[in-house]
Design a protein that fits this description.
mainly beta; 3 helices; 14-stranded antiparallel barrel
C-alpha cells in the first residue's frame, strides 16, 4: 500500500490547492477521486500478494503548454480583452501557460471467458498561470475487454465538471446588457470495437480498424439556452509498416439544441430576445504519421480538419442560419522513451474561418488563429 500512496497524495494535495484558488467543485472532485485512487491502489497492492491474477500499473504525467489563444479569440477580440470590460471579466491575458498534472491507474485481470480485461481510471488537473478561471479537472473511466486475439471492445466515460468556457451576453433585471460566466459540466461516453485486420509478422503490415459511437451532454449552470446534446460515430484505421505508421480518422456528429424559448443576442440596436437554433452537423477528418527513428524515438506529424454546418436556414434563423465554420489543425512533435518514462515535445497551429451570413453577436467563436507549444513527461510503474 505504501508504494501507491504518494501518487494518490499528489491529487489529494491538488484538490486542496484547487479549493484555495476558489474553484471548490473541481477541487472536491480532484480530492475525492484521489481518495478513490488511494483506496483502489491499496486494495490492489494487497491483492497482488495473492492469486487474484490482477495487476496494477500507475501513470503519472506532468506537462506544460504555452497557448497563444486559449479562448479562441479573433484579433479584434484579443485587443478588447487587453482593454478590459465586463465581457472579459476574470481574464487578464489573451495568452496563457497551462500546467497539467495527471494520475492514472490501470488494473489488468481476467474478464469474459478468462480473456484479459483492463479497467482504466484517469484524473487530469489543468492549471492556468494567468487566467486561473480557465483551470479545470477531468475524470475518465474506461473498461477494455479482449474478445479474441483480434477483437477488442471498449467502453469509456469522461466528466469535466464546472469548466469555464467564456462570458456570454444576457439581460439584467433592468434590461441592460450584462455578461454572465459560462460555466458548464460536460459528460461524454464512447463505445468502440477494434478488429486487427492484418497481423504484422517479420516486417509485414499491421492494420487495426476501429469503429465507435459517441454521445455527450454539455449543461451550463445559468445559461440553459447554451445546453446541447451531441451524438456521432467514428471510423479509424491504424497501419504500421516497418518504421512507418499512419493513422486515418473519419468522424461525424450532430449537436442538438433542445432549448425552445427566446435567447439574448446583441444586435446593432441593442440586446434582443429571439428563438435561435444552434444545432449543427460536424465532419472531422484527421491523419497522423509516425516515423521510428530508433527504438526509443519517434517523429510525429498530424493534420486535422473539422467542419460544422448549422442545420437552420437563414430564413428560419436570421442569426445562425446557413452558418459554416471550418477549422484546420497542423502539428508535430518528438517522442522519446527513457526507461519507464516518455518525453514529448511538439507544437500545433490552428486556424478557423467562419461563414456567417446572419446578423448579431452570439458570443461564439469567430475567425481565429491559435498556436500551442508543449512539453510533457509521463512515467509508468
Amino acid at each position: 500500500m505504501a508504494r501507491n500512496a504518494p501518487g494518490a497524495a499528489l491529487f489529494l494535495q491538488a484538490g486542496v490547492r484547487a479549493m484555495m484558488h476558489g474553484w471548490a467543485k473541481r477541487g472536491l472532485v480532484a480530492g475525492a477521486v484521489g481518495a478513490v485512487f488511494f483506496a483502489v491502489g491499496a486494495a490492489d497492492a494487497a491483492a497482488q500478494g495473492g492469486d487474484s491474477g490482477w495487476r496494477a500499473r500507475w501513470t503519472v504525467g506532468l506537462g506544460s503548454t504555452f497557448d497563444h489563444n486559449p479562448l479562441r479569440l479573433s484579433s479584434g477580440q484579443r485587443n478588447d480583452l487587453l482593454d478590459g470590460g465586463d465581457r472579459y471579466e476574470s481574464l487578464s491575458q489573451p495568452y496563457d501557460v497551462a500546467n497539467r498534472l495527471r494520475l492514472g491507474l490501470d488494473l489488468r485481470g481476467r474478464g469474459l471467458a478468462g480473456r484479459r480485461l483492463e479497467l482504466e481510471s484517469d484524473v487530469r488537473l489543468d492549471m492556468y498561470t494567468f487566467n486561473r478561471r480557465l483551470s479545470s479537472v477531468a475524470v475518465a473511466l474506461a473498461a477494455t475487454q479482449r474478445l479474441s486475439k483480434r477483437d477488442v471492445l471498449r467502453l469509456g466515460f469522461e466528466v469535466t465538471p464546472s469548466e469555464f468556457r467564456r462570458n456570454y451576453p444576457t439581460a439584467s433585471s433592468t434590461g441592460e446588457v450584462e455578461y454572465v460566466a459560462g460555466v458548464a459540466t460536460t459528460v461524454e461516453g464512447e463505445l468502440s470495437y477494434q478488429r486487427r485486420v492484418l497481423r504484422g509478422k517479420r516486417g509485414a503490415p499491421d492494420l487495426d480498424v476501429t469503429m465507435g459511437v459517441m454521445a455527450g451532454r454539455r449543461t451550463f449552470d445559468d445559461l440553459p439556452w447554451r445546453d446541447r446534446t451531441e451524438i456521432g460515430g467514428e471510423l479509424e484505421a491504424d497501419l504500421d509498416v516497418g518504421r512507418f505508421g499512419l493513422e486515418l480518422t473519419a468522424a461525424g456528429a450532430r449537436a442538438l439544441d433542445g432549448y425552445s424559448g427566446d435567447e439574448p443576442i446583441l444586435t446593432e440596436v441593442g440586446l434582443v430576445m429571439a428563438p435561435l437554433d444552434r444545432s449543427y452537423d460536424e465532419i472531422r477528418l484527421a491523419a497522423e504519421t509516425t516515423l521510428k527513428m530508433s527504438k526509443r524515438s519517434r517523429l510525429v506529424a498530424e493534420y486535422d480538419l473539422r467542419e460544422r454546418r448549422y442545420t437552420a436556414s437563414l430564413s428560419e434563423d436570421p442569426y445562425y442560419g446557413d452558418r459554416r465554420d471550418r477549422r484546420h489543425s497542423l502539428g508535430g512533435g518528438l517522442r522519446l522513451d527513457v526507461g519507464r518514462a516518455e518525453l514529448t515535445v511538439g507544437a500545433e497551429h490552428q486556424f478557423q474561418t467562419a461563414y456567417r451570413p446572419g446578423r448579431g453577436d452570439t458570443g461564439d467563436e469567430a475567425d481565429y488563429q491559435r498556436f500551442r507549444a508543449f512539453l510533457g513527461l509521463k512515467y509508468r510503474r
